[in-house]
C-alpha cells in the first residue's frame, strides 16, 4: 500500500540536514526542521536562508518563490513537532549510539505508519533500525553534498525493509528530481565505498610531502576531469565527517588498509581544522 508523503521531518540541521530541508521545500513539500537546541536551529536556519537568498540574487528564484519556500518550512526544537509527519530523515553526526537514541525517540513520537529514514553514509542502517519497534519501516536515504545540487540519492534497504517503503521512497526521490540507486546495507554503499579510499590516498600523498595540495587537486581536476580535487572535496565534506566515514568503513569493511584513516586526518580533526565549516581545512576560507 503506498503512502502519500506530504510532510517530511528533518532531524539535524548541519551541512547535510539544511541542504535536505532546502531540497524538499524547493520541491513543494512541507518540512518540519528539528534540532536539539536553539543555537543549532538558528545556524541551520541561517544556512537555508543564505542558500535561498543566493539563488534569488542569481535570478534562479523570484522573491515570491523564496517566500513560498520559507512558508513551507517550520523550525522546532525537540522531537514532539514530528508527531504528524509522513517521513523523517535523520541527518545528525555519524555516531551509531547517537543515531540509535534518536531512532528510539522517533519511534515513540512519530505516527505508526511514518517512514523513518537515515542519511547515514557509512553506518549500518540495520543496526539503526533495530533501535525502533518498526525496523520494516526504516530505510537509508543518502543524499550527497551539496544536497540541492547533487543529483544522486542512495536508497538503502535492509533485510527487513518493507517493499512498499522502498517504493514510496523511490517515488519521493522522483518528485525531488533526483536519480536514485537502491542497494543493500553495506559499509559506504556504492559511492563512498569507491570514493573514500581515493580521498584517503590523496591525504597520504600530501602527508608524505610527495606533492603539494594544489598539485594533487589540479591533477585530478585537470587530468581526470573531476569538478573538484580530493583535498578541496574533503574540505567540502568536512574533515570530521570524512574521518568518521573512513573509520567506520575500516572497521565494518574487514579492516581494508585503503580505509585506515591517514594520521593527518585525525590530527586535523583534533586541531579543529574541519574544512569549510570552520573556515580552515586543507585550504583556508573567508
Ligand atoms: N548549496 C546549494 N547550492 C550550491 C552549493 C551549496 N552548498 N554549492 C554550490 N551550489 C550551486 C551554486 O549556487 C550553483 O548553482 P547555479 O548553477 O544554479 O548557479 C551551482 O551549485 C554551481 O556552483 P558554483 O558555480 O559556485 O561552483 P562549481 O561550478 O564549482 O560547483 C560544486 C560547485 C557543485 C560543489 C562542484 O564543484 C561539485 O560538483 N563538486 C563535487 C561535489 C561532490 O563530489 N560531492 C559529493 C561528496 S561525497 C558525499 O557527499 C557523500 C558523503 O556521504 C560524504
UniProtKB/TrEMBL annotation:
It comes from the Bacteria. Residues 188-285 form the 3-hydroxyacyl-CoA dehydrogenase C-terminal domain. Signal peptide: none annotated. Residues 7-185 form the 3-hydroxyacyl-CoA dehydrogenase NAD binding domain. The gene is paaH. Belongs to the 3-hydroxyacyl-CoA dehydrogenase family. The chain holds residues 1 to 286 of 595 of the full protein. It comes from Asanoa iriomotensis. This is 3-hydroxybutyryl-CoA dehydrogenase.
